[in-house]
Amino acid sequence: MTRPGGPVKEPGHADGPGRIGRVAVLTNPAAGAGHAEPAARRATARLRALGVDTASLAGGSADDTRRLARQAVADGYDAVVVVGGDGMVNLALQAVAGTAVPLGIVPAGTGNDHAREYGLPRRSPEAAAEVIAGGHTTAVDLGRITGADGASRWFGSVLATGFDSLVSDRANRLRRPRGRMRYNLAILAEFANLRPLPFRLTLADGTVIERDLTLAAIGNTRSYGGGMIICPAADHTDGLLDLTLVAAMPRLRIARFFPSIFKGTHVHHPEVTTHRTASVRVESPGITAYADGEFIAPLPIDVTVTRGALHVLTPRPAPPPTMPRPGVTPSGSIS
Known about the structure:
- By secondary structure, the chain is an alpha+beta fold.
- It has 2 domains: 19-134, Rossmann fold, CATH 3.40.50.10330; 146-307, Sandwich (Tumour Suppressor Smad4).
- The protein contains 8 helices and 16 strands.
- Strands 1, 6, 7, 8, 9, 10, 11, 12, 13, 14, 15 and 16 form a 12-stranded antiparallel β-sheet that branches.
- The longest helix is centred in the first third of the chain and has 14 residues, at 36-49.
């Protein structure tokens, strides 16, 4: 049966073991507040110890990183491996999406929501390297965003618009402090300026939603922002996008509401509505969109999903438990 997004291959199907003999390891030395470079060294050493030939590539800018990733695909590497956070993953997606070249992830960022979604080791570059060398891939969906200028870009986790994108706008304008604290300061500043935001969303079936919102999140996966489970029912293999819409609320209510996002229980609040759709057009004056933690475009945007657009290297599933045959004890003797 053809599902929304196109008949690529049965998503979620484990492609099984592949021959991983030669990989390109892509890093940005500044990613993860400087954690990416040592993580890359550790992962590369482990890959080589496991017999995987590695080429180390370091991008000096976002454009340079995308160019290196595309060149690695063209050069026929068995996999493109990124060391860094969700922003680095997003850059690599622009090269590997829609190809047979799998993506390996060595988490070394502040959020690491892709790694969280796919059950990848987040604290050990060596363990992440072992997953890559194992060669087990899974086909998963990707979202695709098209801006008003016609430019398109893939994303893997959650697209944010509204309060959360305003926070990202402000954080990007701040020069200090570095790391997570800068984002926390941006949250406080935007919270002081909290206001209803007029949104218009048009779903694939023609449904139009026009209302004031605090935020609208569009999830291919469940979490963003380092484990905020904004779209708890999202399934990265169903060919659909999950929408979480948070109504405009007074500041005090928002302050009480916000912690529930980390558990995914916010969807039970009356101020939250959820939808599932194959595509959505998002409009709100003066609001920008961020996906995988990266700036994408000012609204309006059109968002679609493509089933099985990415092959990601994931841990091999545990084998099912062996059940003894009736009448035979586990030792093999007849009972």
